[in-house]
Amino acid sequence: MLFNHPRSPEPRASRIHTPGFEHLRTEIWMGGADSLHGEHLGPSHVEDAWIIDVAGEMPHDLRKAAALWLPRVFVDIEVEPPNIAWLYQLANSVAAAVHGQPSAEGDAWPHPADAPARIYVMCQHGMNRSGLVTGLILRAVGVGVDETLASIATRPGALNNQTYERLVRSFEPLAFRP
Asked: Among candidates 126, 26, 96, which has minimal Cα distance to 67?
């Protein structure tokens, strides 16, 4: 069969560099379960990392190998996700961990208090959903809007959903003191 042959997804991710925030010990990576761009991910890459899976497409072996797998699935369409308030809370909670601060009481995003060395934000192709959540996390960590969008744009085609870009631009994160 030449067309529509079954195959396994090949997760790939790219490290998102944030000028001026090199002091953070947690690297933010953005990618997709079936992405064409970035470094190939295997179980050994994620065993001490968190995976935020916003498409529900991560292979089982990576889900199992990750120190923490957070499935937070939403659809990639040109409308505001119905769970945007939860995504804002996720970004603020992850930023608190990255800054070494406890998350807010009643936090709906259970994760260890200490951030890992790496956080992978993964969707299907590593473009829009992962771009939105990565952008929100970067903004919550304290990265400015323009720097956030420029960092995400290092992945070809990333954050081309105008609604998601608007959400990153308008997000007002909690203030953290590093």
From this structure: 26
pTM for the full predicted model:
0.92
Cβ-based neighbour number of residue 162 at 10 Å: 9
Phi, psi of 168 (to 5 degrees): -65, -45
Answer whether residue 8 is part of any domain.
Answer: no
Burial of 164 (0-12, 13-18, 19+ CB in 10 A): buried
What span, in angstroms and rounded, lies between the C-alpha atoms of 43 and 62?
A: 5
**C-alpha to C-alpha distance for 40 and 49, rounded to whole angstroms:** 15
Q: What is the pLDDT of residues 32-68, one digit of tens each?
A: 999 989 999 999 999 999 999 999 999 999 999 999 9
Average pLDDT over the chain reads 89
Sequence-separated (6 or more) residues with CB below 8 Å from residue 60: none
Q: Quick check: is 12 in a domain?
A: no
134 found inside a domain = yes
